[in-house]
Prior knowledge:
6-stranded mixed β-sheet; Cobalt-precorrin-4 Transmethylase, domain 1; binds iron/sulfur cluster; alpha/beta; 10 helices; 3 domains; binds 4-oxobutyl trihydrogen diphosphate; 327 residues
Amino acid sequence: MPSQNLESSATDSRALKVLLAGPRGFCAGVDRAIRVVEEALRRYGAPVYVRHEIVHNRTVVEDLEKQGAIFVEELDEVPQDAHVVFSAHGVPKTVPLEAERRNLLYLDATCPLVSKVHREAERHFANGGENSRHILMIGHAGHPEVVGTMGQLPAGAVTLIKDADEARTVQPENPARLAFITQTTLSVDDTAEIVAILRDRFPQIEGPKREDICYATTNRQEAVKRIAPECDLVLVIGSPNSSNSQRLREVAERSGAPKALLIPKLENLEWDALDGVNVLGITAGASAPETLVQEIIEALSDRFSLNIEERIVKEEHVTFSLPAPLG
Length: 327
Ligand code: 0K2
Ligand code: SF4
C-alpha cells in the first residue's frame, strides 16, 4: 500500500497524527462537469446558465459564478437564446425536450457513469413491450440523480426502493419480470444488503453483477474504511447536500471511528472538536476540491505539531472527454 509521510515545522505545539485517505475528492465525472461549464464560458462568453448546482459543492459553484455562470433550478429561469448546462447528476428526459422546444442551446454534463444507468433502465424497459421488466431503483427519494434516472422512463415504470425494509415489503405486479438499478453514490454495504434481499425474494430479477455504484464512490468508501479504525475523529470535507460525502461520514463511523463530521470547509470547523483527538482522519467527497483539504491542513499545522501520513488504497486513472459540442 503506497503511503507518504510529511512532517510539519511546528515544534512546541501538541502532536497530532493526520491520516489522509486516498483516493479522496474530485472524481472524473465532477472534473468533467466543471470543465464543461468552464469551456462553455470560454467559447460562448458569460453568462452561461447551469441547471442545478453543477456538483453539490458551494465552493465550486461560487468559483464558477465568479467566472460568469448563473445557477438556476429550472429551465423556465433561463432566458431565450442562452446557453444552459445540465448538472453532473443527470436530468429527466423532459428537460432536454423542453430545452429543444424553447430552442435553448444546451450542454449535458451528466456523468457518463450516470448516463450508463439511464441506458440500463431503458434496456430493461424495452419500450414497454413484451420483453419489458418493471424496474426497482435503489436510491434516495428526491435526490436529483434519482429524479433524473427515474425520469428516463414513463411514470409507473420504476419503483423506488429506499432501504432494506422496502426491499422486504415491495409487492411487484409480476415478480418474474423485474430488474434493478441503483444510484451511483450509495453506501456499498447497505446496497449489497438490499440487493441480496431482492435477489432472494425475486430470483429471476435482472441487474448489474453487484450494483451501479461507481468506481469513485467505491474507492472513497474503501479508503475511509481503512483509516477509520485508527482515528479518534474523521473529518469529511463536503457539502451537506452531497450524497456521496454523507455516505463517507456514515462509513467512517460504522468502520470504527468514534466520531465523523461532515464539514463544507475550514470556517465550519469547530476547534473544540479536536480536543482529546490524537489521530485525525481526513477525506473529501467526490465534489470537494483538494484546496479545501489543504486549507484545513494548513490551519492544523498552525496549532499542532503534525505528522501526516497519506494512505492510498487505489490509484485512479479514469478521465472522461467533454461532450460532443465541446470535445
Ligand atoms: O453525491 P451526490 O450525488 O449528491 O453528488 P455530488 O456531491 O455533486 O458528487 C458528484 C456526483 C454526481 C453524480 O454522481
Ligand atoms: Fe460519476 Fe461517480 Fe463521480 Fe458521480 S461520483 S460524477 S457517478 S464518477
